[in-house]
Amino acid sequence: MSPPRGYTRRVTLRIGFKTSQTDVDMATLLATWELGDELEAFDSGWIFDHFVSLASDGGDCFEGVALAGALAARTRRLQFGHLVFGNTYRHPTLLANSAVTLDHLAPGRFVLGLGAGWHEEEHAMYGMALPPIGERITMLESAVRVIKALFASPDGATLDAPPYRLADAVLRPPPATPAGPPIWLGTQGMRRGLRIVAELADGWNHTGDPATFEEKRDALLRHCEDVGRDPAEIEISAQAFLREGHAALLETATSFAERGAQHVILLMPAHQGPDGLQQLADEVAVPLRERFG
Fold it and tell me: Which of 85, 165, 171, 239 is deepest in the core (most CB within 10 A)?
């Protein structure tokens, strides 16, 4: 299957791994990422942004911003970030400051992934507000505008983008990366969410199966045409979930690449550690690399 007309995939598919930081000890997680930094099959590494395990039986979970700092310091090559930060967990000015710190720890490597927030139980247990989805999408768009304004004008940004506002706000030091770290959005809504991607984002991350990816990809392309945005400016990625073993994972990842994904992220349980990541590389990432460049 070929990508649609007007859509350009990079000559070389980019491949990442994701180790959501639950039910794993810190030594194992750090060792896994250190190995990932050495394995040429991988271009990127990712974690998630939750305060509790998403497993039905619960479990331990490390906080994402602090952990990203440790991973930045333990790696030298990998692009890295979160798929994705929940906008309802942190004010966007706080997130912008965290992003700049990570950008200085690992210049040119950090990606700011951001979504609208969704986990009802997590919000409830911590007393965090979770507005209706329409309001959360408005908040997400406002947050992106705030973060981009701070990146662009670190000596003083003023912006009225309700519900967030800036009044001669500074962001010092400024980003190490010109114009700030790239912003990827994890929103999946075809009407409003993907239009925000077309207008404001540097990347889009799909969560779902290859069939829904194709439909959403086409919706994103239509929004790009409507707003006059070159789709080549937006990196399109997809997460491939490990459900039925590595053979099935390779099939899913291949299907994403055939449908035009430029960056495929392979998920693995973090507790599998370095041995699990090596196996993921050998059985999935390397065959993908051999097929797609």
Answer: 85
Six-digit token string for 254: 């291949």
> What is the phi/psi pair of residue 54, to 5°?
-90, -5
Dihedral-angle region of residue 180 (phi above 0 means left; psi in -120 to 50 means alpha; beta otherwise):
left
Whole-angstrom distance, CA of residue 82 vs CA of residue 89: 13
Question: Which of 147-170 are b and which e, b meaning 16 or more Cβ less than 10 Å from the residue's Cβ?
Answer: bbbbbebbeebebebeebebeebe
| Termini Cα distance of the chain | 17
Structure tokens that stand for 119 in this block: 């986990």
Tokens representing residue 91 in the block: 């004010």
Domain housing 224: 14-292
Whether 6 is covered by a domain: the verdict is no
Number of domain units in the chain: 1
Tens-place pLDDT, residues 218-269: 999 999 999 999 999 999 999 999 888 999 999 999 999 999 999 999 999 9
Is 176 contained in some domain? yes
Contact 282, 249 (CB under 8 A): no
Distance of CA 157 to the CA centre of its chain: 25
Residue 173 CA, chain-centre distance (Å), reads 24
Q: Counting beta carbons within 10 angstroms of the beta carbon of residue 271, is it exposed (0 to 12), middle (13 to 18) or buried (19 or more)? A: middle
Residues 6+ apart with CB under 8 A from 216: 188, 190, 194, 206, 208
Q: Are 159 and 166 in contact (CB under 8 A)?
A: yes
Residue 53 covered by a domain? yes
- In this structure, what are the phi and psi dihedrals at residue 15, rounded to the nearest 5 degrees? -130, 130
